[in-house]
Design goal:
seven-stranded mixed beta sheet, globular, alpha/beta, single chain, 10 helices, Rossmann fold
Length: 233
């Protein structure tokens, strides 16, 4: 497993230390063990987890500022927040999820991996934002919602001058177009889109970087699931 990890990460420009390779190996083992109880992921085969979860999570690791405060909204089984924390131990990560069993899994996982400066939050994004409005350098999310909805969940957490990073698949351009009004309304601007090719799964990944230009109006994010049922379009 370690050879698979080090070789694959090297291919994508990341040199894992012995400790980091061990952490990813432990992550995989514990994820598969706990998945039998909690249904954390549909992806469990070793090579698939390395590419589709670990590598996919860390693709933008170069673009996160040193010692940044990062919130992972809808983190699920820890993606992308935990893999990013492993390869970037300098960052301060908050893992937010609305399902308590996932949050408890992440607490146990991070303790096993020896990860420090990780905060675990069981809450909905719109509720936690009341405490942590515009407090983070970076807000990230992967496979959670369409861009107009996601913008409303992420941008209120980001301080002016920070960024929201949204992990998307092939149709990022279509989502950006659909989300133009939401992004502008919430104080953001599309800064760049970085494209990555995951050859092993013949798939393109896009990370959309949205810069926080102005403060988000206080009425956002809206409660009662409105960002999803009635997105800003």
């Amino acid at each position: 497993m370690k050879k698979l990890l080090t070789t694959t990460f090297h291919k994508y420009g990341i040199e894992l230390s012995e400790k980091q390779a061990e952490q990813f190996e432990q992550y995989y083992t514990y994820l598969v063990e706990e998945n039998e109880k909690f249904n954390l992921t549909a992806i469990t085969e070793k090579n698939d987890v390395v590419i589709k979860h670990f590598i996919d999570s860390v693709l933008p690791f170069h673009d996160i500022p040193q010692n940044a405060s990062v919130i992972d909204v809808g983190t699920g089984a820890g993606f992308p927040g935990v893999p990013l924390k492993i390869v970037r131990p300098d960052i301060h990560v908050t893992l937010l999820d609305s399902l308590n069993k996932r949050v408890e899994f992440l607490k146990r996982l991070c303790e096993r991996l020896g990860l420090e400066e990780v905060t675990f939050v069981h809450a909905r994004a719109e509720d936690y934002c009341k405490e942590k409005r515009e407090k983070f350098d970076i807000a990230i999310s992967r496979a959670v919602a369409a861009l107009p909805t996601l913008a409303e969940y992420l941008l209120p957490f980001v301080r002016k001058g920070g960024n929201a990073l949204m992990y998307k698949a092939e149709k990022a351009d279509e989502e950006i177009k659909a989300g133009e009004k939401a992004i502008k309304t919430l104080g953001g601007r599309v800064e760049k889109v970085k494209n990555y090719l995951l050859e092993e799964v013949d798939g393109t990944r896009n990370v959309v970087f949205i810069a926080k230009i102005t403060p988000t109006p206080s009425k956002y994010p809206r409660p009662k699931n409105l960002p999803k049922t009635k997105p800003i379009v």
